[in-house]
């Protein structure tokens, strides 16, 4: 191991923060670390909105289903997939962007994820804690309006940042044999391995909740994946100029 891999393996989401502020210089440093991530064809399609206004924060917390840490964290960032800037780049060269391709949606979204994870690792290397907030997509239209996002821009997720005021255990991940395949896809033997992993997750939740939560990984997935998943997303994204072709 080395310190970078140890840092990566020690990640756990933080949902309770101290009042210690994060200097704006640090926020800038973190955003620059995000920008250093690889970017599909150099499109640099990530825009970050730092939300300082407390009323907006409260509304975002509400949009995310009442997640108080969205309102309370010292810093809250919204990561947006942004093809509007690329449209501008085309216009600067008297060209008209041919937008709406699914491929562009994928590349812009992947850019955002790589940027955010770079920023996250940089933050954790400074002793900060984070939690991603996909919950803002519950009310994505309201979030977009609140942040005045133009066409060709959509909010992918938020991120709470601050100094941890809790020290949760690292959540066990699937055994590597289940996620690393050789030469072709095969799931033979996976069910047995997942059943063992289920027990590790059950123990993790029992310890974390003092015996209040009894849940395996496969139970958690089967509870969630039988439900609809934010069915408003497709029409919203199409309305903003994504996923049209
Ligand atoms: C894109 C994304 C969105 C997420 N959205 C939320 C969220 O809205 N609220 C929350 O409490 N956690 C959220 N999480 C955190 C996950 O629940 C968490 O990463 C996962 O359970 C694994 O736990 P760990 O990060 O502590 O290892 C999100 C994570 C990701 C990557």
UniProtKB/TrEMBL annotation:
<keyword id="KW-0288">FMN</keyword>
<keyword id="KW-0521">NADP</keyword>
<keyword id="KW-0285">Flavoprotein</keyword>
<dbReference type="GO" id="GO:0052873">
    <property type="term" value="F:FMN reductase (NADPH) activity"/>
</dbReference>
<keyword id="KW-0560">Oxidoreductase</keyword>
<dbReference type="InterPro" id="IPR000415">
    <property type="entry name" value="Nitroreductase-like"/>
</dbReference>
<feature type="domain" description="Nitroreductase">
    <location>
        <begin position="10"/>
        <end position="163"/>
    </location>
</feature>
<dbReference type="InterPro" id="IPR016446">
    <property type="entry name" value="Flavin_OxRdtase_Frp"/>
</dbReference>
<protein>
    <submittedName>
        <fullName>Oxygen-insensitive NADPH nitroreductase</fullName>
        <ecNumber>1.5.1.38</ecNumber>
    </submittedName>
</protein>
<dbReference type="InterPro" id="IPR029479">
    <property type="entry name" value="Nitroreductase"/>
</dbReference>
<dbReference type="Pfam" id="PF00881">
    <property type="entry name" value="Nitroreductase"/>
</dbReference>
<comment type="similarity">
    <text>Belongs to the flavin oxidoreductase frp family.</text>
</comment>
């Amino acid at each position: 191991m080395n310190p970078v891999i140890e840092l990566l393996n020690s990640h756990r989401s933080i949902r309770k923060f101290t009042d210690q502020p994060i200097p704006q210089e640090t926020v800038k440093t973190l955003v620059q670390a995000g920008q250093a991530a690889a970017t599909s064809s150099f499109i640099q399609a990530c825009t970050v909105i730092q939300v300082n206004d407390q009323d907006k924060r409260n509304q975002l917390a509400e949009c995310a289903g009442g997640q108080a840490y969205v309102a309370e964290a010292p810093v809250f960032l919204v990561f947006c997939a942004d093809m509007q800037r690329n449209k501008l780049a085309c216009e600067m060269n008297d060209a008209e962007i041919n937008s709406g391709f699914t491929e562009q949606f994928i590349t812009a979204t992947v850019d955002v994820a790589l940027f955010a994870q770079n920023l996250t690792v940089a933050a954790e290397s400074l002793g900060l804690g984070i939690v991603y907030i996909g919950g803002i997509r519950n009310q994505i239209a309201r979030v977009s309006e609140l942040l005045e996002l133009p066409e060709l821009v959509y909010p992918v997720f938020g991120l709470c940042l601050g100094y941890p005021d809790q020290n949760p255990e690292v959540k066990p991940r699937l055994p590597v044999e289940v996620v690393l395949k050789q030469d072709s896809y095969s799931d033979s033997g996976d069910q047995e391995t997942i059943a063992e992993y289920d027990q590790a997750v059950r123990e993790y939740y029992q310890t974390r909740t003092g015996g209040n939560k009894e849940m395996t990984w496969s139970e958690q997935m089967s509870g969630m994946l039988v439900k609809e998943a934010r069915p408003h997303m497709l029409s919203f994204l199409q309305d903003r100029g994504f996923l049209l072709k």
